[in-house]
């Protein structure tokens, strides 16, 4: 399978804990995106990388959120001091002058 | 401020009939529009797109129409099949980053 891979699929954590998600994009894709989706809403843009450079961040991305893409390959999204409002589906997508290809997401539940 | 709006949360159609899903946008900078389909527990899957220089794009049973003056686009599925039952998201983008702004989705149910 050469699609976008996200791990873990599900994460349950207690409020105040830190969590980290991983995304492995399609190998030849140089662009990588993170989105967040809550119930009844469409995905909302969080941040975008071209190769290893983080070029754009949404104002939705508070200081508790940080994303990296070392060496322009896989990416990680870390949320520090999680809050109940962080509960959502976190989607990763990749592209290379093509429509975005999405992974199946990581569902985060903060209790 | 919702820049891409899908005002119908749900739509039911009979198998074999036409499904029409609608989408409105407010940002005149958008120059590329897409439709994605999403099944439960999966990520969105690209369906069809249209550039702002066109008013129609067709791919098999799927046709997207763009009316720039009305800032409106629609997705036609004909004939509809039960396997088309999913949530459909309209999305729009502009600029080189191509990051997408999504609508809130329409749940399509095709009844056998």
Features:
heterodimer; A: 111 residues; mainly beta; 7-stranded mixed sheet; 4-stranded antiparallel sheet; 0% helix; globular; B: 112 residues; 6-stranded mixed sheet; 5-stranded antiparallel sheet
What is the topological layout?
The complex is a heterodimer of chains A (111) and B (112).
Chain A: E1 5-7, E2 10-13, E3 19-24, E4 31-37, E5 44-50, E6 53-57, E7 65-68, E8 75-79, E9 88-95, E10 101-102, E11 106-110
Parallel strand pairs in A: 2-11
Antiparallel strand pairs in A: 1-3, 3-8, 4-5, 4-9, 5-6, 7-8, 9-10, 9-11
Chain B: E1 4-5, E2 10-14, E3 19-25, E4 32-38, E5 45-51, E6 56-59, E7 62-67, E8 72-77, E9 86-93, E10 101-102, E11 106-111
Parallel strand pairs in B: 2-11
Antiparallel strand pairs in B: 1-3, 3-8, 4-5, 4-9, 6-7, 7-8, 9-10, 9-11
Task: Summarize the model shown.
The complex is a heterodimer of chains A (111) and B (112). Chain A is mainly β.
Task: Give the CA-based shape of chain B.
Answer: globular
Based on DSSP secondary structure assignment, what is the total number of beta strands of chain A? 11
What structural class results from the helix and strand content of chain B?
A: mainly beta
Main sheet summary of chain A = 7 strands, mixed
Greatest interface: A-B, 23 and 23 residues
| Alpha carbon gyration radius of chain B | 13 Å
Low-confidence stretches of chain A: none
Radius of gyration of chain A: 13 Å
* Shape call of chain A: globular
Oligomeric state of the chains present here: heterodimer
**What is the terminal-to-terminal distance of chain A?**
33 Å
Summarize the helix and strand pattern of chain A as letters: EEEEEEEEEEE
Share of residues in strands of chain A: over 45%
Q: Output the structural class of chain A.
A: mainly beta
Give the N-terminus to C-terminus distance of chain B in angstroms: 38 Å
- Work out the helix count of chain B: 0
Mean pLDDT across all residues of chain A, rounded? 94
């Amino acid at each position: 399978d050469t699609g976008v891979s996200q791990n873990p699929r599900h994460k349950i954590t207690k409020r105040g804990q830190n969590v980290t998600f991983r995304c492995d994009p399609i190998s030849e894709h140089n662009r990588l995106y993170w989105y967040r989706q809550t119930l009844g809403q469409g995905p909302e843009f969080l941040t975008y990388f071209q190769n290893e450079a983080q070029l754009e961040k949404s104002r939705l991305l508070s200081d508790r959120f940080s994303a990296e893409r070392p060496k322009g390959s896989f990416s990680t999204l870390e949320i520090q001091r999680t809050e109940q409002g962080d509960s959502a589906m976190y989607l990763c997508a990749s592209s290379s002058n093509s429509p975005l290809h999405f992974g199946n997401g990581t569902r985060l539940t903060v209790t | 401020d919702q820049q891409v709006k899908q005002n119908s949360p749900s739509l039911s159609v009979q198998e074999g009939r036409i499904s029409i899903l609608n989408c409105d946008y407010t940002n005149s900078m958008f120059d590329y529009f897409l439709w994605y389909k999403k099944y439960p527990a999966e990520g969105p899957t690209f369906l069809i797109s249209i550039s702002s220089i066109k008013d129609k794009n067709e791919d098999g049973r799927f046709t997207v129409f763009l009316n720039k003056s009305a800032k409106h686009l629609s997705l036609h599925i004909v004939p509809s099949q039960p396997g088309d039952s999913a949530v459909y998201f309209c999305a729009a983008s502009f600029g080189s980053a191509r990051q997408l702004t999504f609508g809130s989705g329409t749940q399509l149910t095709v009844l056998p």
